[in-house]
Write a structure and sequence with these properties.
By secondary structure, the chain is an alpha+beta fold. It folds into two domains: 73 residues, Alpha-Beta Plaits; 140 residues, OmpA-like domain (60s Ribosomal Protein L30, Chain: A, 2-Layer Sandwich). The chain is 36% helix and 20% strand. The strands form three sheets. A four-stranded antiparallel beta sheet has the order 2-3-1-4, covered by helices on one side. Strands 5-10-6-7 form a four-stranded mixed beta sheet. The chain has a two-stranded antiparallel sheet with strand order 8-9. Helix 5 links the parallel strand 6 and strand 7. The longest helix is centred in the last third of the chain and has 21 residues. The termini are far apart.
Length: 238
């Protein structure tokens, strides 16, 4: 009986997640019990990639949505509105384990004047491999940078060696070259100060020695925002 109940629950969840036309009754950063919506029929919960809990009612048309919205507002949910889930941006899409991997993916960093991969870098790249294996329509974008030590020409070549190290790791795990795009910036796009008030800033230079790992959907849209997620202390910001 428990197995049948679990199977039924999974089938119901699958059906609900396939629904494209819904009324969003409420969105909140804290989970609430479904009994909150006892005056409405068919409310179900999702949680998106930003950990926002959304409470929906499936509808078959905008006309049906109008009736549900009216009932929701009468029940006290004044912000209820119609939504087509097919138009949701990636950040608001339903949470999945793959979405969690994308959310936690970080840039990889390098030692001064080096292009070898650190153990932590390999772990991040392995996560990227798993994302690509689980989503054949996705591709990887690798963007390589250096600090400002050395000549412009040397640093461009160094960023190429760094992006090649990351790309070769993906290739070694069976990811096709056609699914990997690379860009090299040398020292042109720092996210932190290489020096401040004429003094060297080793911590800032370390943040600049990086390859950003991007996940791209079939339309070339970036599904993660790695650059923004790199923490730069205030005293090292450009």
């Amino acid at each position: 009986m428990k197995k049948l109940t679990l199977l039924f629950s999974l089938c119901l969840l699958s059906y609900l997640l396939q629904a494209q036309q819904v009324v969003q009754v409420m969105g909140t950063d804290k989970q609430v019990p479904l009994s909150t919506f006892e005056n409405l029929d068919g409310v179900y919960q999702t949680v998106d990639n930003n950990q926002i809990y959304r409470y929906y009612v499936k509808v078959n048309s905008e006309a049906e949505a109008s009736d549900v919205i009216a009932k929701a507002r009468t029940a006290g949910f004044s912000n209820a509105f119609y939504r087509d889930l097919a138009t949701l941006p990636p950040c608001c899409s339903v949470y999945t384990p793959v979405a969690e991997k994308i959310r936690t993916l970080k840039s990889i960093f390098f030692d001064f004047d080096k292009s070898f991969l650190r153990p932590e870098s390999k772990r991040q790249l392995q996560t990227l491999v798993e994302i690509l294996q689980e989503n054949p329509g996705y591709s990887a974008g690798l963007r390589a940078h250096t600090d400002a030590k050395g000549s412009v020409e040397y640093n461009r070549a160094l960023s190429q060696r760094r992006v090649d190290s990351a790309k070769n790791y993906l290739l070694s795990k069976g990811i096709a070259a056609s699914r990997i795009s690379t860009s090299t910036y040398g020292e042109d796009s720092p996210i932190a100060n290489n020096e401040k008030n004429g003094a060297d800033t080793p911590e800032g230079r370390q943040l600049n020695r990086r390859v950003e790992l991007l996940v791209l959907d079939g339309n070339g849209n970036t599904l993660n925002g790695v650059v923004e997620e790199i923490f730069v202390p205030d005293d090292l910001k450009n």
